[in-house]
Amino acid sequence: MAKRLVTLCTCQWADLELDPLCKLAKEMGYDGVELACWGNNVDIEKAINDDTYIKYILDTLKKYDLQCKALATHIIGQCVGDARDVRLNNFAPAELANDAIAIREWGIDTMKKSALVAHKLGVKIITGFTGSAIWRYVYSFPQTTAEMVEKGFDEIVTLWTPILDEFKKYDIKFALEVHPGEIAFDYYSTQKLLEKFKDRPEFGLNFDPSHLIWQGVTPHIFLNDFAHRVYHVHMKDAAVTLDGRSGILGSHIDFGDLRRGWNFRSLGHGQVNFEEIIRVLNLHGYDGPLSVEWEDSGMDRIMGATEAAAFVKRIDFKPSNVKFDEAIAN
To answer: Are 297 and 15 in contact (CB under 8 A)?
Structure first.
């Protein structure tokens, strides 16, 4: 197995137009990009209706010798499964503001279209979120019944089934990033969701250790247990810095503030054990990209993302094809 591609997830770089983004990604040392389908990166509607735009994307990738193995649809998918939430106005088209039904319909329609766009680009994986109507129940007060939770999971299945039908049509897989705010946000909620989707191989996971470690979930144990449904891997770090005043829920304090009990960190500056992750990936034969999702409010992003690319290339290693003690025997 060759060393894996190191790609840049462009979710945090959607302010850049595609050409300068790709130029910068190459300069920072990346082999490819996981392109965000919003902002100035990739326009789903344009890609559906204009094949010259598809050619422009492919030509731009070729120009900078970059590969694209995944599209990112996080903010679109969030609009599918969330309950009414004014914050979704930040994700949906401006003309749909405050219309929860229209925002959900847009999310479903655009997720379906993303499968065709991926097909046109020769991409097989779409990463993203599902949303959740029951995330607000995460602390069970007022009291949350088992029936309320079951209904929330079943609603996600109902909403995403027609989307997954479209994914199946084009042989595309959806990789949910397990993440607070989603229907699956930790170990057991992921286990429950995958059981709901056990007959839908189109539905899998985007493994991201940074969202697990601060919750107390050991990332490489999670990865090992769900490896059969891991279709994509994010490389992102986080540090837990509880000091006796800070709490794990963040105190409504913004990311980067040192009063928080935890923060995302640039790769190698947090507490994720990436060597154990590489060993588990090798054990299960994962040969997809290692996609850097760079988030660190305390560091310059170009410096940090450049350092992150080098970090991933340094810590990735091939599995052994020999037993180390074979040469000892006569």
So the answer is: no
